[in-house]
Amino acid sequence: MRIGYGIDFHQLVEGRDLWIGGIKIPHSKGALGHSDADVLLHAICDALLGAACLGDIGVHFPDTASEYKNIDSKILLAKTMELIQSEGYRIINIDSTLCLQLPKIKPYVTQMQEVIAAICGITSKDISIKATTTEHMGFVGREEGLVAHAVVLLKKGL
Ligand SMILES: [Zn+2]
Fold it and tell me: Is the model's pTM score more than 0.90?
């Protein structure tokens, strides 16, 4: 068994789509980044890589590489899964928390779970997605950005 932890941050700006957990969420602002800036998928990728001691998302998918410009982060998660599977690992479960003031993500959680579960070869019951505001404090509270934390448990073999 191996535990892994990931955290990711993105700015929220006008004129960008808001992708969280592999789905596009209607909102007046979107996350700024080299890829589609999906903060939740990035945190999960980092947690997976961390559990397998394979570095981080920036090592495998550098934001200087044109091939990753505006890339769908579901592709990055799929590539990350290939990396951990090549080391003989499978996922037991993922737990995650999103920190953002707006929009409310609860209506989208089931769909996010289904998308992530399909990529990771687990069931929706194995992927927990929680959300919190920061009670209007700090950059999250001012709606300048959002944060995702993720913890994963991997097991080697079947
Ligand atoms: Zn990111």
Answer: yes
Distance from Cα 150 to the centre of ligand 1, integer Å: 12
Q: In whole angstroms, what is the distance from residue 52 CA to residue 69 CA?
A: 26
In 16-88, DSSP assigns E strands to 18-20, 23-25, 30-31
Ligand 1 centroid, distance to 42 Cα (angstroms): 5
* Radius of gyration of the CA atoms of the chain, in A: 15
Residue 158 clears pLDDT 80, i.e. is over it = no
- Terminal CA-CA length for the chain: 11
- Whole-number Å distance, alpha carbon 40 to ligand 1 midpoint, is 8
Average pLDDT over residues 103-132: 97
